[in-house]
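haha ok so turns out i had the wrong file open the whole time. this is the CORRECT one, sorry everyone. sequence first:
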Amino acid sequence: GVEKNILASIQWYEKSASQGYSVASNNLGEIFFAGEDNISPDREKAIFWYKKAEEQGFAHVRKLD
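then structure:
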């Protein structure tokens, strides 16, 4: 068991997303849409990451705009 660390998760997701991994982009969208632990919901960041996931080919992107 590893302790949950949302900030480290965001860093790893960002690295994966920058390499074209659409699931990571979508997961970032979800984190910023709902907020998590000490991360407040941020609609603009969520939209950015959802759009990125869609551009990368993720099929089931949440539509916010």
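The mean pLDDT is 93.
again sry for the mixup
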